[in-house]
Amino acid sequence: MVTLSPKSDQKILLELKGVKKYFPIKGGILKRDQGHVKAVEDVSLQLYEGESLGVVGESGCGKSTLGRAILGLEELTEGKIHFRNEEIQDLKRKEKLKFVKEMQMIFQDPYASLNPRQRIGHALEEVFTMHTNMSAKEKRASVLDLLHEVGLKEEHFDRYPHEFSGGQRQRIGIARAIALNPSFVICDEAVSALDVSVQAQVLKLLKTLQEKYQLSYLFISHDLGVVRYFCDRVLVMYLGNTVELGTVKELFANPLHPYTQALLSAIPRPSVHTNKKRIRLEGDLPNPANPPTGCPFHTRCPIAQEVCMVDKPAWQEIEPAHFAACHFAGTKI
Amino acid sequence: MTNAVLTTDLKTSVVKKKEKVYVTTLKRLLKNKLAVAGMVIIILQIGMAIFAPVISTHDPIHQNLVKSELPMFSENHWLGTDNYGRDVWSRIVYGARISLLVGITAVSLGLLGGVTLGLLGGYYKKLDGIIMRIVDLLFSFPGILLAMLIIAILGTNLVNVAIAISIWSIPTCARIVRGSVLSIKQKEYIMAMKSLGASDFRIMIRHILPNAMAPIIVFATMRMATAILSTASLSYLGLGAQPPTPEWGAMIAVGQNYMWTSPHLTIIPGIAIMLTVFAFNVVGDGLRDALDPNMDIN
Predict the structure, then answer these.
(1) pTM of the full structure
(2) Whether the Cβ atoms of residue B103 and residue B227 lie closer than 8 Å to each other
(3) Chain A partners of B197 at a C-beta cutoff of 8 Å?
(4) Residues 6+ positions from A114 with CB-CB distance below 8 Å
(5) B66-77 tens-digit pLDDT
(6) SS3 assignment, position B178
(7) Contact check, Cβ <8 Å, A201/B9
């Protein structure tokens, strides 16, 4: 595939091929399957070494499920995931351990993602217990290094999660994710729960770590401002489908898909001079258990034509390294 | 990351040194007067059990027919003697040993079985159906009847009483644990541990169990009361401790023949049983109240 992304000289780290994740809806007396919630519908993409790929979309569009599916926390309904050219979606837990070291996740709510009954020093040591044969002394030393790395202190070792502030907790979450020197980290709304000032600090920390360890990020977020600052490329999702993918610069300057255009117009602009009209989408997100025929967006799309209700638009490279799934890609609303 | 940013983050954060959960629980428990009274009784009883040879005045099974059926506050025998002339006080003291020992054994065995079944049932969806049907089956037997059945099969002695009572504790415990596991396994930190590659065993033991401890502790305390009462009941029926073992229930069984002439032979072991059961129950109640606000410390 021709991908003229600015990082095209780099190796592909992770590749998704036609990934689908359906959740069965059970009902009735016999608990039979009564259809599926199509959380992730046919997602294919590549992630390069050292890049940050942002994933944006409304709540319920399948961003988080996608992240979990990549880590193997959700079983795929269909599709393949390649990590460093090895298929990983069907591996058993023991075979998967070597990939676990490479792929980690930072969760949205740093408090909920830490065991409230475990001192954070021990929580971090446990990561080494599971994956290495370090002695107790080595583990403690490594944990102290980690704490310093994320901007915490030695005295925090013996504290419980509730004794920290939100920002500090997220630093602990980050420390846990980078403990095993991964090459790929999924940030699932990693800064959404934090104050704006703390957000900036945590984002800075993530950037520093990325430069130091050559990390790749899959940065799941609903905050376009954060994505614009943090990511190299952006993937827009709608109702489980990939809608548009491009470099941050390209996508923000020249959004091809009407949904992306609507999303971008919703970013507040601190300016009195530009009087840009906001594109308002009518109606709600359709029920993912019963998605619309044709283009999933046609029910709310301001430029929808008849063809959109019948044919699902193909995922195609409209401009170099800029993909979109729309029959009328590039039409400005 | 610049140092300036770092220090502001650490300074602005409110790092209040909170007490550990167990300390706060104990503090709350100490405010509950009834629970404190219960704890005093339990501590006294444990002291009695441990120091039985020191505080007893006579050999609990030594018969002295010359001094049989002495009333309370007699010389050398402040709680009197029974029909064989055995010192009631010494028998009560040694009886505390038996009650506690059987109670602790029964509750520990019950917890072992119940927690295991509850953890497995709550964690593995596939096992849940089978395990919960077994639990339902055990539930359908009346407690004492089930215990009698088990003793009838295994034979009458105190070890079998402990086993019988423990089996009868398993279903309740399993249900309590399963309920907690079901809610805890949805928490994000369990997901986080899975993403770190933790084994199911590690997740259950290190992460789910510690967070499910509060209801288990309350259950264990309350169950101690029931276990001690059941031991006494079974011994009273002749299915538990055999003569001349100084067991409270067995003491009542013998004493009831002399109820009109020497009422202290039934009243004193009766009071001992009642106080112990009362103590464990109020402490259990107190623990539940004290732990409740902490059960969900998120």
Answers:
(1) 0.81
(2) yes
(3) 93, 96-97, 100-101, 130-131
(4) A120, A123, A161, A169, A172, A173, B189, B192
(5) 877 777 777 777
(6) helix
(7) yes
